Amino acid sequence: MRLNTRVAVLCVGMFASHQAAAAELPQRWVSAGGGLSEWVSALGGESKLVGVDTTSQHPESLKALPSIGYQRSLSSEGILSLRPDILIGTEEMGPPPVLAQVKSAKVQVELFSAQPDLPTLEKNVTHLGQLLGAQAQAAELLQSYQQQLGAVKARVSALQANHQPPGVLVLIGHAGGKPLIAGKDTAADWMLQQAGGHNLATHTGYKPFSVESLAGLDPQVLVFADRALTGDAAKTALFKENPILDSSRAAKTGRVLELDPTLLVGGLGPRLPAALKTLADGFYPAQSGQ
Length: 290
Prior knowledge:
alpha/beta, Rossmann fold, 2 domains, 11 helices, 44% helix, globular
């Protein structure tokens, strides 16, 4: 009888301790960065989100949340009006004076790296899991993510055994306006490599598009991401505003692929493995059914 009583007391104590630990975790979240917002949702924390930035478009349900504006040009008033316990974002989030004001209002500010590599992703998702009290879910998601990437890697390796990687340029624009070319150390570059493409751009970061750059590189495949338009409207606007693109091998052979720009913000996100498969199909169209 005494043993049962002790066990009961121990269980009650553990439950109370768990409840206290959960109560200490931040409950009202604001997220600035599409990839991070997607991971919060995937980890079961969407109900804690009270506001997101304009790059947080997935899942669809996030669009119903109050917006704090674009991640690089936030205002402290907009954030603090949501009474958050925590604000998360990458080093792209700012400006710095706004973050300082948010911190001074006793809001926890957590900065994550947007570096496009798997060690950074593992660190980010693990930390999010800790902040959400969802460590087990974080571990499971990371394992699944690695398996999906492994499948893409095996498929790309098989394709490249008999085919040369196509030369690719990634153009990031707004309503067809003068785009930027994605270079090394960007999420776009990481995606191209994982999907079996060869990034023709040799610079680091993003560089303004120019006639000279296109003439000198002549890509076999063009990948474009438009922050304002989608589908045929985005493609039409891109070529209308940049007619030199018509002379590229990619345009002449119809190898022009669209990429969701929200995949490139907030670090590597949950939807990337599926997007990589789509890109690989575009890079190796004749073999995509194999």
